[in-house]
């Protein structure tokens, strides 16, 4: 990373150039984001993972920009068009849009009207008109009449000259940038239903005739309109509310005199350039910018939700009875040991006259396998199965587990490899049980995009989505740490510095040689060299190993330092780990020097106090309301406990135990105004809600988290309409697209059952 790029990144991200330079150097040397954030704090000035990832991404963006600039310069040089001034402008361009603007006048063109006019020899006439706007031009135009060239009259000559002028205006970087800025600030996005599509496109009815400012429209509505357009139900248009003002901007740049005959020709050319060339190209640009903005918003929602789900509280190592509930095919039951290994599986039918046999089996298995907790999937028959189990009088917790994505795992190659002799129903039950024990370890086996914690996941930029979600998984895995002797290869593959191949080699080595006894032993694994060891070792845990520090987040490169700390106060490492009074004798300032500063020393002391600590919250049991198991049991005004399953830009979906998530619209999340639902709720958060309204035929539930059901004044936010599908919510400013339940519930795609989108 050269100095110029360092300064650009520092300015763009408002970070110290020294921190950017150090981070860039570490990234170029192959260091990972988690490693840099955790173990190179002194070098970066204690930048966190977010800042380090931002430096990485900005560096990649500048690399793409520079590569495009080099390609443009090569093209211009080959055609002998590159001048020092042009090269300087290309090098100074800070966005791809500005770079393409600079290149636009020199881009090889197809057979445009302007090109054809030039071929007819009309360029001198166009130049005269522009440079002599206070003059007449009819007589001059006669000089360019040439039937052999296809110019039969002065009027045709003037028309051709206007085509050239219009094209020159369109090619002007200044004109293009000014119009883009005007559109971004003043354009509106309008959506209308296509003729004859009113019935078939009913799910988009909130967008049949709507207009909203480009500047303020939320990302989820952009994606909704785009989807409606792509499916052939909606027409979308982006244009300024007053296009005459947009034309005036261009006139101000090219129209020098308003009275002369030539000036009138320029004015006509400006209008033509705007309507035929500039407005369409600017609309395309704004469309792409809106899509980019919407993608970033949606991906941020995905990422935040995924982090909360992955970092959900683990039950820990317990013997678990896992149940994948069902009516027709019964409940698939799996007994797991404390490492999550499958010990036994069976099927029970508590809902089909088999309650007595099911009771006997469950009680027997709980005793035989010393079951410490029961995990029940929250799918079909989940609440009924939960009620059955709680009625058995067991003294162990019965926990409902979100099973979104479990079916994807059970049919995956990963599951087939892990359980080649079991069918998908058994694999699904095992996954449910393991999710209770350790959500992170189990969910990493599923493509993050399949977990279902966002909105419009198939509409957003898939490359951006995958990269962002992978970053989240990597961050979560490394912040928790991985037990190398029990982790799956899927979990190991997310450890900093490792990949799927090395992870598989670690598991193979473990299977052949038994548990790892020390971190140093990892260097015997095929493909795991010194650099990989440096990146990964601190995030890998070995409990009950030779060195007690191997169970901590202290990096092996600091073992010697810890040993010196212990020696200096007449103690040993185990004593440091076990006794706070011994650690209190250490004067950290004595060890500051070289590449070691107080940030690293404080991390070491914190880790010595709680070696290998899990940053996730302590597990707490949760129960849904008794007697409320299906949507028909709900009554307006009913207060219920629930678990947030998904947070979107327009509200939160909450599982209240009736097989259909309810929506708490953003306007119902709090008594005070809420701009972003993520400021109030997170996935897996336990909340109390009240039922506002229930639409049983369409399986829609409207909930509120406000402290009281205030009486709404007639006409002030009361939008309940059974025909339109709208539910009562408080109106929000600048939301002309409405707050209809259908819009929020994603009628525009997959429904939110069990938090899925």
What's the alpha carbon Rg, rounded to whole Å?
33 Å
Low-confidence stretches: 710-757
Give the biggest beta sheet. 5 strands, mixed
Structural class: alpha/beta
Q: State the end-to-end distance.
A: 40 Å
The amount of beta strand, in percent, is 5-15%
What fraction, in percent, of the residue positions are helical? Answer: 40-55%
- Let me know the average pLDDT: 89
Shape: globular
Strand order of the largest sheet: 6-5-4-7-8
Task: Give the strand tally.
Answer: 15
Count of helical regions: 30
Nutshell version of this structure?
The chain is of the alpha/beta class.
What can you see in these coordinates?
The structure is a single chain. By secondary structure, the protein is of the alpha/beta class. 45% of the residues lie in helices and 11% in strands. It is built from 30 helices and 15 strands. The protein has a 5-stranded mixed sheet, with helices on both faces. A 5-stranded mixed barrel has the order 11-12-13-15-14. It has a 3-stranded antiparallel sheet with strand order 2-1-3. Helix 1 (3-13) crosses helix 5 (49-78), helix 14 crosses helix 15 and helix 15 runs parallel beside helix 22 (462-480). It starts with a helix and ends in a 13-residue tail after the last helix.
Detail the topology: elements first, then pairings.
Layout: H1 3-13, H2 17-28, H3 33-39, H4 41-44, H5 49-78, H6 84-92, H7 96-103, H8 113-119, H9 123-131, H10 138-142, H11 154-171, H12 173-186, E1 187-193, E2 209-213, H13 219-230, E3 234-240, H14 243-254, H15 261-310, E4 320-324, E5 331-336, E6 342-348, H16 355-368, E7 373-377, H17 382-390, E8 398-401, H18 406-410, H19 413-418, H20 424-437, H21 439-443, H22 462-480, E9 482-483, H23 489-492, H24 500-513, H25 530-536, E10 540-541, H26 559-568, H27 573-578, H28 580-583, H29 598-609, E11 639-648, E12 651-655, E13 662-665, E14 686-695, E15 700-704, H30 741-744
Parallel strand pairs: 4-7, 7-8, 9-10, 13-15
Antiparallel strand pairs: 1-2, 1-3, 4-5, 5-6, 11-12, 11-14, 12-13, 14-15
Helix pairs in contact: 1-2, 1-5, 2-5, 8-11, 9-11, 11-15, 12-14, 12-15, 13-15, 14-15, 15-22
């Amino acid at each position: 990373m050269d100095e110029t790029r360092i300064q650009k990144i520092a300015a763009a991200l408002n970070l110290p150039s020294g921190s950017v330079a150090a981070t860039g150097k570490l990234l170029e040397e192959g260091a990972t984001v988690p490693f840099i954030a955790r173990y190179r704090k002194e070098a970066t000035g204690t930048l966190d993972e977010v800042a380090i990832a931002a430096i990485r991404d900005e560096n990649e963006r500048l690399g793409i920009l520079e590569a495009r600039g080099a390609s443009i310069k090569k093209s211009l040089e080959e055609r002998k068009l590159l001048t020092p001034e042009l090269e300087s402008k290309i090098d100074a361009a800070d966005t791809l849009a500005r770079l393409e603007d600079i290149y636009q006048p020199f881009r090889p063109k197809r057979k445009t009207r302007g090109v054809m006019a030039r071929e007819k020899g009309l360029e001198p006439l166009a130049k005269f008109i522009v440079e002599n706007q206070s003059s007449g031009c009819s007589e001059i135009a006669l000089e360019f009449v040439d039937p052999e060239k296809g110019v039969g009259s002065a009027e045709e000559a003037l028309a051709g000259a206007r085509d050239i002028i219009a094209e020159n205006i369109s090619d002007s970087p200044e004109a293009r940038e000014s119009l883009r800025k005007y559109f971004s600030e003043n354009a509106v996005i309008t959506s209308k239903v296509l003729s004859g599509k009113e019935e078939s496109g009913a799910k988009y009815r909130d967008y049949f005739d709507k207009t909203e400012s480009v500047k303020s429209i939320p990302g989820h509505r952009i994606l909704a309109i785009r989807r409606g357009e792509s499916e052939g139900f909606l027409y979308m248009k982006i244009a300024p509310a007053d296009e005459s003002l947009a034309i005036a901007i261009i006139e101000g740049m090219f129209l020098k005199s308003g009275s002369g005959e030539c000036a009138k020709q320029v004015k006509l050319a400006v209008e033509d350039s705007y309507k035929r060339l500039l407005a369409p190209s600017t609309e395309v640009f704004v469309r792409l910018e809106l899509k980019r903005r919407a993608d970033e918003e949606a991906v941020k929602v995905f990422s935040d939700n995924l982090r909360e789900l992955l970092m959900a509280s683990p039950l820990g190592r317990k013997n678990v009875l896992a149940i994948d509930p069902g009516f027709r095919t019964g409940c698939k039951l799996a007994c797991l040991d404390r490492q999550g290994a499958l010990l036994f599986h069976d099927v029970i039918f508590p809902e089909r006259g088999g309650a007595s046999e099911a009771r006997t089996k469950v009680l027997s298995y709980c005793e035989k396998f010393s079951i410490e907790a029961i995990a029940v999937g929250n799918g079909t028959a989940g609440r009924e199965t939960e009620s059955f189990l709680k009625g058995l009088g067991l003294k162990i917790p019965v926990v409902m587990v979100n099973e979104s994505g479990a079916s994807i795992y059970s049919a995956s190659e990963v599951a087939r490899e892990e359980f080649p002799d079991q069918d998908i129903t058994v694999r699904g039950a095992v996954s449910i049980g393991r999710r209770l024990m350790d959500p992170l370890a189990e969910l990493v086996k599923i493509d993050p995009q399949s977990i279902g914690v966002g909105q419009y996941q198939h509409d957003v930029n898939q490359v951006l989505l995958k990269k962002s979600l992978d970053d989240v998984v990597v961050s979560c895995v490394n912040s928790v740490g991985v037990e190398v002797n029990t982790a799956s290869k899927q979990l190991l593959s997310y450890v900093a510095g490792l990949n799927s191949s090395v992870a598989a080699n670690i598991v193979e080595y473990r299977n052949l040689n038994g548990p790892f006894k020390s971190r140093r032993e990892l260097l015997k694994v095929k493909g795991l060299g010194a650099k990989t060891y440096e990146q990964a070792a601190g995030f890998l845990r070995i409990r009950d190993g030779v060195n007690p520090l191997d169970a901590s987040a202290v990096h092996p490169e600091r073992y010697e330092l810890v040993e010196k700390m212990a020696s200096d106060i007449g103690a040993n490492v185990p004593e440091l780990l076990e006794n706070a009074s011994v650690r209190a004798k250490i004067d950290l300032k004595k060890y500051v020097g070289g590449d070691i500063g107080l940030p690293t020393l404080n991390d070491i002391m914190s880790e010595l106090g709680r070696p290998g600590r899990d940053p996730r919250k302590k597990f707490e049991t949760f129960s849904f309301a008794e007697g409320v198991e299906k949507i028909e049991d709900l009554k307006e005004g009913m207060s219920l406990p629930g678990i947030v399953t998904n947070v979107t830009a327009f509200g939160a979906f909450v599982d209240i135990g009736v097989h259909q998530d309810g929506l708490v619209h953003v306007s119902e999340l709090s008594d005070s105004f809420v701009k972003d639902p993520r400021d109030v709720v997170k996935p897996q958060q336990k909340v109390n809600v009240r039922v506002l309204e229930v639409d049983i035929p369409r399986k829609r539930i409207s909930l509120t988290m406000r402290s009281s059901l205030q009486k709404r004044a007639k006409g002030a936010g009361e939008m309940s309409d059974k025909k339109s599908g709208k539910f009562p919510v408080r109106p929000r400013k600048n939301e002309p697209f409405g707050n209809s339940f259908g819009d929020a519930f994603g009628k525009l795609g997959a429904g939110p059952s069990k938090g899925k989108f």
